[in-house]
Amino acid sequence: MCLERSSIAEAAHAILKFGFVLLANGSLLSEDQMAEGLAVMKSKFGEVKAAAEAQSIDCAPWKYGSRSPQVQRARRTNCSFEYAEAGSYRYDGRMDQTLSVKEGFYSQQPWRNHSSLLDICRKTFGDECFHFYVGGFWNFPGSGYPHWHRDCIDCEYAPELVVVIALEDLPENAGFPLVQPYTHSNGSFSGVNSKTQTREKGEPEPIEVAMKKGDVLIWHFTTKHAASPNLSKNDRALLYYHVGVFDNEDPANLDPEDAKDALLQAGSDEKLPSLLEGLPRRRDHVAEL
Fold first, then answer.
1. Beta-strand (E) ranges in 44-153?
2. Is residue 108 assigned to a domain?
3. Which residues contact 274 (CB under 8 A, 6 or more apart)?
4. d(Cα 100, Cα 72) in Å, to the nearest integer?
5. 179 DSSP 8-state letter
6. Do the beta carbons of residue 151 and residue 164 sit within 8 Å?
7. 0.85 cut: is pTM over it?
8. What residues make up the domain containing 53?
9. What is the pLDDT of residue 88?
10. Per-10-residue mean pLDDT for the chain, 289 residues long?
11. Is the alpha carbon torsion for 10, 12, 13, 19 positive or negative?
């Protein structure tokens, strides 16, 4: 399934203007493709979860909402979870799982080198583009406050796009991406701090994109973003790609046969700010195609 040329041009224009765009209504993948892609992603997560739980890892991000004494102690140390194919940068109930684009299920179309995604990238940056990352964004029940950041802090331009696809319908409070308009390179608020709470600074209002099955959210690599807390009872999984001008390698995408033991790193305690309240879950503010 491919987009018309006019839609590709509109998507690229929205990314350059706002820093992100939402392609709505299942415009890139069929129902069968989404079902199969979700099943594989969940199966890969199951492998990591089983390996970590065999080692009795209380710091695993899917245990974040647990009230057991062991997990609460792990929370107080603010430890991080890292595994060969998955990692949580802080103990906040979220996990980034890298998947292989060189072999296996996601190495083939439409999962790799989808023509419409590459066309949007080319139109956005005016150069040849490549697809070099694939993975799963996991957000588990009870996850913590939004961790605002940019994927590339020191880059003035960074010709790269992050593509996020919802492969199933989930409750609106399952912890979807938050994006802050105009904060990408060349945006009118490109100079705002990457990690501060946004509304305290008089910056553009952050938007939570409550994605529906088949929706594709694309943001510029330098757009300020986060994930909202998962207040539902569902594990929230979103498939993601990176496409860009430079054919970068994913250093975390290791061979499953070379899986390492889970590494736990104790961090300093932090007093987390209160959860952001009243964030809009709007689709109309997003440039929607």
1. 80-83, 86-88, 94-98, 130-139
2. yes
3. 145
4. 33
5. E
6. no
7. no
8. 5-265
9. 72
10. 72 94 83 94 90 80 83 70 68 83 84 90 92 89 87 75 94 94 90 78 87 94 92 94 72 38 30 30 33
11. positive
Which residues 6+ apart lie within 8 Å of 131 measured at CB? 101, 112, 113, 114, 117, 118, 241, 242, 243
**Contact of 230 with 175, CB cutoff 8 Å:** yes
Domain count along the chain: 1
Token pair, residue 101, equals: 């684009």
Q: Identify whether the C-beta of residue 230 lies closer than 8 Å to the C-beta of residue 238.
A: no
DSSP states along 216-261: EEEEETTS-EEE----SSS-EEEEEEEEESS----TT---GGGPPP
Note the pLDDT of residue 280: 32
CB within 8 Å of 244: residues ≥ 6 apart = 121, 125, 129, 130, 132, 158, 159, 160, 161, 221
pLDDT of residue 169: 94
Q: What is the CATH number of the domain that holds 113?
A: 2.60.120.620
Task: Report the distance separating Cα 53 and Cα 45, nearest Å.
Answer: 12
Q: Is residue 85 part of a domain?
A: yes
Question: CA of 67: how far to CAs of 41, 58, 89, 140, in Å?
Answer: 27, 11, 21, 14
pLDDT on residue 90? 59
pLDDT of residue 4: 63
- DSSP, collapsed to helix, strand or coil, labels residue 162 as strand
Kind and range of the H or E run holding 36: helix 31-54
> Is 13 a domain residue?
yes
* Token pair of 87 as six digits: 């990692």
32/167 Cα distance (integer angstroms): 10
